[in-house]
Amino acid sequence: MKRVSGGNPKPRPPLENDMKIRKLLVGTTATLAFAPAAAMAADAVVIAEPEPVEYVRVCDAFGAGFFYIPGTETCLRISGYVRYRVGATSDDGLTDTPNFNGYAPDGWNKETRARVNIDARQDTEWGMLRSYLRLQSTWGVPSDGAVSVDQAWISLGGLRMGYTESAWGDTVSGINTTGTHSDGALWYGDQQRHLIQYNFSTASGLFGVISLEDDALSGEGYMPDIVGVLSYEQGWGGVWGRVGYDESFDGFGASIGLQLNVPNTTGSSLRLIGYYADGDHVYGTGSSYGAISGGMGNAEWAALASYYHQFTSTVGGSVGFEYFNDFYAGNSSVSTGLNGYVAELSMVWEPIDNFEIRSEVTYDKVDTRDGSVGGFLSFTRSF
């Protein structure tokens, strides 16, 4: 080769194969560099995030014990009690007493009851929507532990419908007007019925009910029984009146009542109630005379007085008396000319919250018959 004086040889241009080799080496190096990361990514286990837990929230819109049903705006409260009761009856002249209706006379009577109340409420633009269900089972004469739905009803605003206490014997608004202050409460015409009713109240303490009720539970023509209630309540107590029309009997009953709360003695009160019935139908007081007549046991007139005193924060007691003037023959408006009365003494002790020990004794007397004595001792755990 001929050399050029004083210069370097001219470089040879790279071959096409050399360029390919370089590209292959670079690509291989990059692949090897990312291979471990890719392999690790392929082997990774992806764990799904758990769904957020919705805890039960307290609902204070309707009082203590309510909580929101998760996922809804409905508030639920579950309550009830378990009660054991032992009592005795000495029936010399009657076959029934207010304390142990339907129990055998002249002996010990035992009873255990379990009750569960399920109360669901929700505020709506139409007022409060509410449903109420009571499950109950009683062991002892005359039942033996069969669980049943004792009450079930629905309400929206002031409208209520279902199977529950008749407005004739139910509590009037905030005042417990169901007979005397005791658990037995003597005789006041308590009963449960199919009904549809409207309730109204005002901020001034006025309360009223119009109730259409079915006593037969299976339909009896197209005319229901009708009950009307009106009451007025304040801090001193309250007054109320009731009227009930029994369509199947074509008769009516009426009642007026007064409760006076004792000043400076929380829980103590005096209660007076008067009753009238024009026959032996469902809108009277009933009485132990019904076991003799075969009917309801109504009298033309009846008067009830009861006083409850709260001695201490845990101990209270009451006395009650009820007089019946002129009993009706069973299921009729025929007067018998017989009178009667019943008296009671009740004591209650709540040594700890939600646990009650109660005792009651009752003496029942109807003209021409010997008196009857009944009583019990009960233990109740509420929740």
Automatic annotation (TrEMBL):
Keywords: Cell outer membrane, Ion transport, Membrane, Porin, Signal, Transmembrane, Transmembrane beta strand, Transport. Its main location: membrane. SUPFAM superfamilies: Porins. One of its GO terms (biological process) is monoatomic ion transport. It comes from the Bacteria. It is found in: Cell outer membrane. GO terms for molecular function: porin activity. Forms passive diffusion pores that allow small molecular weight hydrophilic materials across the outer membrane. This is Porin. It comes from Nitratireductor arenosus.
